[in-house]
Amino acid sequence: MDSASTLRFAPPNGICLHSGLRKVSSSVMLPELQHLRNSLPDSVEVKCVDEAHSALGNCIACNDDFALIHPDLDKLTEEIIVDVLGVKVICQRIAWNVLVGSYCSLSNIGGLVHPDTFVEDLEELSDLLDGLPLAVGTVNRGSNVIAAGLIVNDWTTFCGSDTTTTELAVIDSIFGLRDAQSMAVDL
User: Domains of the chain (ranges plus CATH)?
Assistant: First the structure.
């Protein structure tokens, strides 16, 4: 492996991270992890995190520049996030919730956060994120667990089938997807 592709194995509670914040369970078997590693470009860095909070996807919300993280994450975990993802880390709560990865979704264009977020808190968070536009909202007919029903990047979004047209309008507006062609997929 080259120096840009470091691979270490996690202790029992560890989580593997690589750029893009994809997660691999610590229960993954060595051949499975090797297959994943062989499927990734050599430039993708993989590090393991020994963290008491095992579901890091619930504890981290990020885009290409920032990672909002659970305020109680270990300092070493924070350093690994900075190192691997190359982002500025901000310890923050969303509407009193420490599980920022559950209660918001971010792209480089905007972010959707828990509907109980106060306007002042929304403005403060936007300032911390260098002016990233933010909106409060829900998915799947009123669920405030945003990330459980919404996956977004700078080009597209996927949301739960129960997401209403009003919720879709907010999502479309904040993530700048108005110019994209919408397409429903029946599964």
Answer: 92-187 (3.75.10.10)
Predicted local confidence at residue 37, as pLDDT: 75
The predicted model scores a pTM of: 0.78
Residue 150 falls in which region: left (phi positive, over 0), alpha (psi -120 to 50) or beta:
beta
pLDDT tens figures, 75-129: 999 999 998 888 999 999 999 999 999 999 999 999 999 999 999 999 999 999 9
Strands (E), 29-187: 46-50, 60-62, 66-69, 88-91, 104-106, 111-113, 134-136, 150-152, 157-159
Largest CA distance in the chain: 49
Confirm if 83 and 126 have CB atoms less than 8 A apart: no
Residue type, 75: K
In the chain, which residues have pLDDT < 70? Answer: 1-29, 46-48, 178-187
- Whether 143 and 133 have beta carbons less than 8 Å apart is answered as no
Q: Which residues contact 95 (CB under 8 A, 6 or more apart)?
A: 103, 113, 114, 115, 116, 117, 118, 121, 144
Q: Which residue from 125, 73, 65 is spatially nearest to 95, judged by alpha carbons? A: 125
Amino acid letter, residue 125: L
